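Input structure tokens:
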């Protein structure tokens, strides 16, 4: 390619618009950061490869990720086949052109340094059935328009089209695209020196806890909680129960509620749904957008908001619930109890699911672990038993009125008094 043009077909790495398939495990911001790193790796390789011109055909706006030595041309056309055809037409200067994407950051410069002698086109396939590069001596819309894109047979179809036009095609080695979390993990393991690989390793061990909780609720992976020391936290390792309908113990707890009811940390909404089915006005609040979505999809009411923020009906709730160990939210049970006292009416109830160990009073961060290999940053949390919770309640105007339990779960009901 010494006398030709190298083209990089790229999309500005904006969260929510790139690498959406990575979002089954990563947040939109993290997926965009991986896309940006992949693009930088690709541009770095193209910059080292022999060529007369280097052009980025871009959807979006260039940013600090764009190195010197590249021209920028905007993409045009609707489907990918039209945008590819337009890229070749807009860049053509009478010399051969080789176009690559931004999804194979492991690309080596020597792969791009071949000689065109005896060939009219170049094609490099990917393991998922697509292709990572396409080269043409000159633009020809017939070579691209109508070829099905983003399928598991796009590469084969593209090769058939080139051959049907009578073109002599040089095949380059098959590479693996970075499209899915599994692809990203493979890339990081096989090519650890890449920028995208280094970022992947950082993200694997510093995930936002909310991202892993969203992943668990979405069913893409199982998530467990441990202390910093690696010991499991039982009350946070029962997502299957959280996602199931309210069970007998849940219903027993709800029979003590006085409406309307506020469920703090409602998760996927089993409690709020059960209350609604009983005809009791109830609202769930959660910091997880997916949890709120799952709750509302069940026909119950939920709000995406942390408990510390202003909430509807402050001082007028009949009951406030802290089920499933949610007394641990924030790592300060006394602070959370005082907030609950602000939310209930003057004679309202606060029902807390506590640890079965009456004396447990532990404020220690937890770490979430995903079966996909991700680990969260520490999350402030607390675990308290009945006796410890009563001690915390001494500093509020909440007073215990009932301590009850089942073989595996324990609860404490408190009433606000003047």
């Amino acid at each position: 390619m010494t006398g030709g043009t190298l083209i990089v077909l790229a999309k500005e790495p904006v969260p929510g618009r790139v690498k959406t398939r990575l979002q089954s495990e990563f947040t939109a911001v993290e997926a965009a950061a991986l896309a940006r790193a992949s693009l930088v790796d690709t541009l770095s390789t193209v910059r080292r490869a022999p060529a007369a011109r280097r052009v980025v055909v871009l959807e979006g706006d260039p940013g600090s990720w764009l190195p010197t030595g590249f021209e920028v041309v905007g993409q045009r056309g609707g489907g990918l086949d039209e945008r590819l055809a337009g890229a070749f037409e807009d860049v053509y200067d009478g010399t051969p052109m080789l176009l690559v994407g931004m999804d194979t950051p492991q690309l080596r410069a020597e792969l791009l340094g071949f000689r065109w002698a005896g060939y009219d086109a170049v094609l490099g396939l990917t393991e998922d059935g697509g292709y990572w590069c396409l080269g043409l001596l000159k633009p020809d819309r017939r070579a691209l328009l109508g070829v099905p894109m983003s399928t598991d047979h796009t590469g084969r179809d593209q090769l058939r089209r080139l051959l049907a036009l009578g073109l002599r095609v040089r095949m380059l080695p098959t590479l693996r695209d970075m499209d899915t979390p599994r692809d990203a993990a493979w890339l990081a393991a096989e090519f650890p020196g890449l920028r995208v690989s280094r970022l992947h390793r950082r993200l694997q061990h510093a995930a936002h806890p909310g991202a892993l909780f969203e992943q668990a609720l979405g069913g893409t992976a199982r998530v467990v909680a441990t202390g910093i020391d690696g010991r499991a936290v039982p009350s946070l390792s029962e997502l299957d129960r959280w996602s199931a309908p309210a069970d007998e113990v849940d219903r027993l707890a709800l029979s003590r509620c006085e409406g309307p009811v506020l469920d703090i940390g409602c998760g996927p909404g089993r409690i709020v749904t059960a209350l609604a089915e009983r005809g009791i006005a109830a609202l769930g609040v959660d910091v997880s957008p997916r949890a709120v979505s799952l709750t509302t999809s069940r026909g119950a009411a939920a709000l995406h908001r942390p408990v510390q923020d202003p909430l509807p009906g402050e001082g007028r709730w009949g009951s406030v619930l802290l089920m499933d160990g949610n007394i641990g939210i924030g790592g300060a049970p006394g602070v959370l109890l005082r907030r609950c006292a602000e939310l209930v009416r003057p004679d309202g109830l606060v029902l807390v699911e506590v640890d079965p160990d009456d004396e447990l009073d532990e404020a220690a961060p937890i770490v979430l672990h995903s079966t996909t290999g991700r680990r969260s940053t520490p999350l402030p949390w607390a675990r308290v038993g009945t006796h410890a919770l009563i001690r915390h309640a001494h500093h509020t105007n909440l007073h215990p009125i009932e301590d009850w339990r089942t073989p595996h779960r324990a609860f404490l009901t408190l009433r606000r008094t003047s």
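The radius of gyration is 28 Å. The chain is about 30% helix and 25% strand.
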